[in-house]
Amino acid sequence: MIRRNLFKLALGAALTCGAVASVAVTPAVAQYPEKPITLVIPLGAGGSHDLNARVITSVIPAYLNQAMIVRLTPGAGGQKGTQEVANSTADGYTLLFSHNYIDMLQQHVENLPYDPNKDFVPVARINYAPSGIVVRGDSPYKTIDDLFAAAKANPGGLKMAHSGNWGATFVPAAQIMKAKGVNFNMIPYKGGGPAMQALLSGDADVTMGFPATLAGLIDSGKIRILATAGEKRMFDDVPSFPEIGVSGDAGFMHRVVLAPAGTPDDVLQTLREAFVKLQEDKTYTRLMSRLGENTDFIDGPDYQKMREAQAVDYKALVQEITAN
């Protein structure tokens, strides 16, 4: 009897210890994010994406409890960095900070090493930016009419620095050339920052830029802006695109954060919630305003509807630009 009771006690203790051990070795579920997040920009240093990203990554760690690190990966008109993210693990730790032309237009002019429709899902549209036509402050072209007259007198003689073939400054430049019957010598650079440096150094006669890269240069007199995108004037003494005979919807860039397709829904939700909270952060809105940028935010699912419409519209736009 005593032996039987001792056996039961020993067996009970063994089962209890086994249960405890089983509980002890069950791995804890990691809470995303548990390490820094990389934000890949497929463009060069000093451009408007780079400047916007520095603001984003300086503030958003407060809402993710982890750092967000910028990595510039320019090349092939934005395709190098985009492919890098498309090939990355879909775990939320590698994101793409791109724009609508790389994202949805290039598929109509290039055989891409990825499918933007299948390989990415939008996290958020951060803001939008209207472009402007820019020359150096000491340029002989004082007005947009001066620039067009010179281009018509010397077809292909004026050098236009742009951010890469079929990129955010190439497309509106192509629309402008077609609308006005002029021809610039289009020279690609690895982003808007390098293109602007080409203008400032005298390697180019004209370029296009966005508010984040223009404000300080205009104030210092280093550049002169000749026309801007949008139906309304951005500057009292500078005509809008419609005033010079160019479509009012030309030259708008949407800055968008994308994640690889297959990223878990809970991870996407965490990211989207952080970007939503960012919009109410006073430091963020102040820094964006200092750049001259808006904070016209669109959540990922809503922007996806815009992406699908862009894919259709840009096919027609490419056909229009390339038609003889």
Percent helix: 40-55%
Number of strands: 11
Percent range for β-strand residues: 15-25%
Q: What gyration radius follows from the Cα positions, in whole Å?
A: 26 Å
Description:
This protein has 13 helices and eleven strands. It folds into two domains: 37-129 and 254-322, Bordetella uptake gene, domain 1 (D-Maltodextrin-Binding Protein, domain 2, 3-Layer(aba) Sandwich), CATH 3.40.190; 132-244, Periplasmic binding protein-like II (D-Maltodextrin-Binding Protein, domain 2). It has 324 residues and is an alpha/beta fold. α2 runs antiparallel to α12. Mean pLDDT is 90; it is low at 1-26. β6, α8 and β7 form a beta-alpha-beta unit. The strands form two sheets. The chain has a six-stranded mixed sheet with strand order 2-1-3-10-4-11, sandwiched between helices. Strands 7-6-8-5-9 form a five-stranded mixed sheet.
Distinctive features:
6-stranded mixed sheet, D-Maltodextrin-Binding Protein, domain 2, 324 residues, alpha/beta, disordered N terminus, globular, 45% helix
